[in-house]
Specification:
This protein is α/β, with parallel strands linked by helices and 263 residues long. It has eight helices and eight strands; from the N terminus they run αβββαβααβαββαβαα.
Length: 263
């Protein structure tokens, strides 16, 4: 029996320690409407072949470390993720006034916003690790509004997930909403009113959208970002990290994307 012990031990070790994930990343520069855009691509080399792609749209601070981290988190789940640049030239803000200026410039020009998003989607689809027929998008705060706008504009996506995205001032619903929609909302988010929530639900229902709205008790705006507490203290903003809501919303996203891509 001794001659079988070493192979059996090796088998046990292989099962207990599968091929280690190795997240690869690279910066991608592309152009949309004459503006240079800088994206951040992440994928796991432990997964073979083509896989679904997920776009990550940043908070109003721009494509910063947090958005890049979320792209790597998605890569670890087996997706190829592209953190997109909605501001152009890789601009980021360190103060709410600058962030607001950047965000408003995008929101006031819906056609340009759609063009920038669709160009990023085109770049993601062209990657050798991506199944171009399976694309979704997630977004945080400003980015949450962007992905909801893309769904409401009829962009061909399997699913979109908004994390603490604003529901005020969204683009009108145009045509069929192809994407499944998940909204992860902080119940104590003072940036979004009850009327805005009711109006959003009404519009999505009337459009026949396949959507879910989840409110997390005790969660304020930016509840997924561990840096929210420090930002709120520095600038006097009603934002805060909530570890439970962060974990629960991420799990909800995983379940949601699994279901959307399985169809």
């Amino acid at each position: 029996m001794k001659i079988f012990r070493i192979p059996l031990l090796l088998l046990v070790l292989l099962v207990a320690n599968p091929l280690q994930a190795e997240i690869e990343t690279r910066t991608i520069t592309y152009e949309a409407g004459g503006t240079s855009m800088t994206g951040y691509l992440a994928w796991d080399t432990a997964f073979e072949g083509k896989r679904p792609g997920v776009l990550v749209v940043h908070e109003w601070w721009g494509l910063n470390d947090y958005a890049r981290k979320r792209a790597r988190d998605l890569a670890a789940l087996g997706y190829t993720a592209l953190a997109v640049d909605m501001y152009g030239d890789g601009k980021t803000a360190g103060h709410p006034e600058d962030a607001g200026t950047f965000a408003k410039a995008v929101m006031k020009n819906p056609d340009a916003a759609i063009a920038r998003f669709e160009k990023a989607m085109e770049v993601l689809k062209s990657q050798p690790t991506v199944d171009p027929g399976k694309i979704a998008a997630i977004g945080y705060c400003f980015g949450g509004s962007i992905v909801l706008n893309m769904a409401r504009s009829g962009v061909d996506l399997a699913a979109v997930v908004s994390f603490h995205g604003s529901l005020g001032g969204l683009m009108p619903v145009k045509g069929p909403i192809r994407a499944k929609v998940l909204v992860c909302h902080g119940e104590d988010d003072s940036f979004t009113t009850d009327d805005q929530i009711a109006q959003f639900k009404k519009e999505m229902t009337e459009a026949g959208a396949d959507f879910e709205f989840v409110a997390y008790p005790g969660a304020k705006h930016s509840f997924t970002n561990p840096e929210a507490d420090a930002v709120g203290k520095e600038f006097g903003l009603p934002v805060a990290y909530n570890a439970e809501a962060d974990a629960r919303s991420w799990q909800a996203m995983k379940n949601f994307l699994n279901e959307a891509f399985a169809e």
